[in-house]
Write a structure and sequence with these properties.
Chain lengths: ~150, ~120
């Protein structure tokens, strides 16, 4: 496991007074928010390179690694579905925008292969990515974690 | 046939072969990546259709339940991990999770209800 992924799985930065379940949720949501912001920039760059120069094995490997990073944290959060369901009803808490972040993971996955014209068409466009960050749900979730969306 | 029915056995097969010879590992990784990318494509197209063409149409849950996105996502994450050099166990689905995915996300119920209303509804078994 690489160093970045080891950090995702480390709950030690979560507030010590929280229960183990809440420490898990806090640390994974923080990791997911950081990945969402970072990998959005990476995705935008990779998409531009594919459109300008075509794909390459190096670019595909980078895209797969990024998709794997997101997939790891998304799998853990979805595995804890009961916990997430409880939080949906918590006051002043925005649920994790899993479906929005899935769109980035799926688009990175499509860049991890040959990138046919149909696949490129189905990838998130830069405007589509901005649209995700402009959505109220995503912004409320990021704000709850003390993070601003790009462009804010 | 949906991606879900195609890739559940593909995931199991890839997971079983991952510990065998170098050639079969390479083949299993390629198969896993192909499966993950196919799910990604289908899911992206469905998302865009729902977001842009059907956003204000109040599509009934019975047409396309939200749970199917979650189940497909979980399969895609696991297949993505299997496509990597060192699959992260935390990203994979345990056999019991895999077996229970369709029930957990109420896909079996959705298929059964669909079949009651429409005999031509695809057979998922």
């Amino acid at each position: 496991m690489n160093e970045l992924r080891r950090e995702f799985l480390d709950d030690s930065n979560a507030p010590a007074e929280l229960s183990p379940d809440l420490r898990f949720l806090a640390s994974r949501q923080a990791a997911l928010a950081a990945l969402f912001l970072d990998h959005s920039k990476l995705y935008r760059d990779l998409l531009q390179r594919v459109q300008d120069e075509g794909t390459s094995p190096e670019l595909q490997a980078t895209a797969l690694d990024a998709a794997g990073n997101l997939g790891l944290v998304l799998q853990q959060l979805r595995r804890g579905g009961d916990l997430l369901a409880v939080l949906v009803h918590a006051p002043n808490h925005a649920s994790v925008p899993l479906y929005a972040i899935d769109q980035l993971q799926f688009s990175l996955l499509m860049l991890s292969g040959p990138c046919s014209d149909d696949e490129l068409l189905a990838c998130l466009s830069p405007a589509g990515l901005e649209g995700l960050f402009a959505s109220r749900h995503v912004r409320d979730w990021l704000h709850g974690l003390g993070v601003l969306a790009p462009g804010e | 046939m949906s991606s879900f029915t195609v890739h559940t056995p593909a995931l199991a097969a890839a997971a079983m072969t991952i510990n065998t010879t170098a050639d079969s590992v390479s083949s299993a990784r390629a198969q896993a990546l192909e499966g993950a990318r196919r799910i990604a494509y289908v899911s992206r197209v469905i998302f865009e259709v729902m977001a842009n063409l059907m956003a204000d149409k109040n599509v009934p849950e019975s047409i396309l339940p939200v749970g199917i996105y979650g189940a497909l996502g979980r399969l895609a994450y696991a297949l993505t991990a299997l496509a990597e050099d060192e699959p992260d166990p935390e990203a994979l689905l345990a056999p019991a999770e895999l077996d229970g995915l369709a029930a957990q996300y109420e896909i079996e119920d959705w298929v059964a209800r669909g079949r009651e209303r429409n005999p031509d509804f695809p057979d998922q078994r």
